[in-house]
Amino acid sequence: MQSLVPVDHSAIRVNQSFVVGLPVLAFVLDQPWLLGLTALVLLAGSFVFKKPGFAMLIYSPLLKPSGLVKPDVIQDNREPHLFAQGMGGVFLSLAAGFIYAGPSAAGWALGWLVVALAALNLFAGFCAGCAIYYWLNRLRFPGFIKAPPQGTFPGMRPRNAPHEQ
Predict the structure, then answer these.
(1) Cβ-count burial 112-147 (b if 16+ within 10 Å, e if not)
(2) Backbone phi, then psi, for 28, in 5-degree steps?
(3) 90 — phi, psi (to 5°)?
(4) Based on the structure, what is the number of domains in the chain?
(5) Helix or strand or coil: residue 73?
(6) Residue 164: pLDDT band with limits 50, 70, 90
């Protein structure tokens, strides 16, 4: 039997909102440093704090206490979400690097790919990074120890999972 933990999906969605919004803003304003900043927050959240990066900065101290965004706590695996966030951070780091190194079209394309995948998760509930994590688990790659919650499709947000308040 797998041990799931409480995961606040509102925090994840706030994080995804910034992963969609900041790279778009970076493109519109032609400010690739915003890609680097977004990457830094995602990587710190994944590898240092083990939480959604922007949720730590915006959701937990501001949005949740003010009641503007209500918690949506579901029994889930935390690791696939951290893996997906880390992948986004790596890809946005590469995107910023490409833009500054010269192949800016490749950098912006990579940035837009991250935006598209974050938007897919935000609006449709499908986490491509989580699906990759679960596929690596299925292939028994070392370190990928969590299987999808029972009754869910790998990468999809658990639908009828028990909620906590």
Answers:
(1) ebbbebbbbbbeeebbbbbbbbbeebeeeeeebebe
(2) -60, -40
(3) -65, -45
(4) 1
(5) strand
(6) very low
